[in-house]
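Incident log, structure service

09:12 report received: a user says their structure output differs between two submissions of the same chain.
09:20 pulled the input from the user's history:
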Amino acid sequence: MLTLSAAVKIHVCVLPTDMRKGFDGLCGLAEHVLKQDPLSGHLFVFRNRVRDRIKVLYWDHDGLAIWYKRLERGRFQLPTDLQAADQSRSGVEISASDLSLLLGGIDLASVKRRRRYQRPSKPR
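09:34 re-ran on a clean worker, output below:
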């Protein structure tokens, strides 16, 4: 089970990524494509074109870390709204529970969510 702080945001890059990219290449994508600071402590999720590999980039207190998963069979099923909702967007924010389901092989489009209380956000 994946356990993350509620303050951690998870940004998923919708565009396919070359999985040969390392720390510097993924940092560049986080900055220029997702328009986020890779040293913020948030997680940045990248997938390849075939969708059988995922890399997660994050800042771990004193340095960058990459978590990498390759499936031996099957594909990661990203939610359909990530691919088709807004073609002008290159990234989408998901929750920690969504990431955990995604990594566990569950299709997020088929998940039925129950209504829950959500605290209203403060106006900026």
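09:41 both user submissions now match this output. Likely a transient worker issue. Closing.
09:42 reviewer note: The helical segments are 23-32, 80-84, 96-103. The chain has three helices and five strands.
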